[in-house]
Amino acid sequence: MNKKINLMKRFLGFFLMVLMSCSSLKVVTDFEDTTDFSNYKTYGFFQNAGNDLNELDVTRIIRVIDTTLQQKGFKRSDTADFYIDFSSKKSDELPRTSLAIGFGNVGFNNAFGVSGGIPVGNKKVLEVISIEFLTAKKEQLFWQAFLESKVKQNRTPIEKEVYFQKTISKILSTYPPK
What we know:
Blueprint: H1 2-23, E1 27-31, E2 42-45, H2 55-71, E3 75-76, E4 82-93, E5 98-106, E6 109-117, E7 124-135, E8 141-152, H3 157-172
Parallel strand pairs: 2-3, 2-4
Antiparallel strand pairs: 1-8, 4-7, 5-6, 7-8
Helix pairs in contact: 2-3
């Protein structure tokens, strides 16, 4: 009996770790390690920033970047120290499968089951948002970050606003590098 309980506890712990790892958003950054980030206090946007997005999404992203950077003490300027470029790329629809695994016991009987299901709901795609900071003088890349996440293919304007707020804030939380 103790072996069964111990096995179920281990399975539950493993299941919770897998579940938690699926939900976290991870930012990947790269930067020039010789850069003195304290030299960059003002920013601007490239005129063609987000050219792979529609105009409404570009406006949403710029608004979130502005708010986040200004909260960090940066100022938007026509004579900026660095310029920002950003993009979003979506991959094909992700496969939608479901699988359930169960353990249990009733009295002296043990049970194990595996089942599959037909997913319902909105299709999901993989979206990668990247942000790049380039020096104003030479337009050299000195910081870059991207975040990959699964999103609904058809989102409402409010869902897009919430998504961009969450992802852009998460990306910019890694700037400046520590």
